[in-house]
Amino acid sequence: MEIENLEELRAMVIEKGIINQEGVVSAKAMNYFSGMYTSPLLDEVWGLAFHNTEMMDKLFGLMKQAADTGKHEVFGGILNTLYVISGIHAPNELHYILGCADFEIKQIYAREFLEDFADLMYDYRAEADEGAES
Questions:
Q1: Whole-angstrom Cα distance, residue 104 to residue 25?
Q2: What's the start-to-end Cα distance of the chain, in Å?
Q3: Which distant-in-sequence residues (6+ apart) come within 8 Å of 74 by Cβ?
Q4: Does residue 25 sit in helix, strand or coil?
Q5: Contacts of 76 (CB under 8 A, 6+ apart)
Q6: Number of Cβ within a 10 Å radius of residue 111
Q7: Long-range contact set of residues 64-72: C-beta below 8 Å, sequence gap at least 24
Q8: By the 8 A CB rule, do 103 and 67 touch?
Q9: Is the pLDDT of residue 129 over 80?
Q10: What is the number of H-type helices and E-type strands within the chain?
Q11: Do 113 and 39 contact (CB within 8 A), yes or no?
Q12: What pLDDT digit, counting tens, does each position of 101-120 carry?
């Protein structure tokens, strides 16, 4: 389904429970949304990075810095680039989150994404350590 504008995307985000009609963000729904899409994306990026934890740490640091300083355009640009290079279609809801003017929804998503990223780094480090021992 092709979504053409932010209003259609907003309706989809409301339907999924990520925000309500007034635009209040559901932290629980955002956590679920982020968790559902972050792992497949970063697993692909991990492979494209040749299982290099230093490269992934740099990517994490860059995205964290953008989120911490409220530079959501930079954060979103990096995220969109990751989707493009990984060959994975970015979810329509993400287009709303990154394209809307709501600072709070962007900040909450960035925080959830970065928490998921940090959690995945434990697995990537263990995988890299296993490979180094072989």
A1: 8
A2: 46
A3: 66
A4: strand
A5: 98, 106
A6: 17
A7: 64/114, 66/110, 67/107, 67/110, 67/111, 67/114, 70/103, 70/107, 72/98, 72/103, 72/106, 72/107, 72/110
A8: no
A9: yes
A10: 6, 0
A11: no
A12: 999 999 999 999 999 999 99
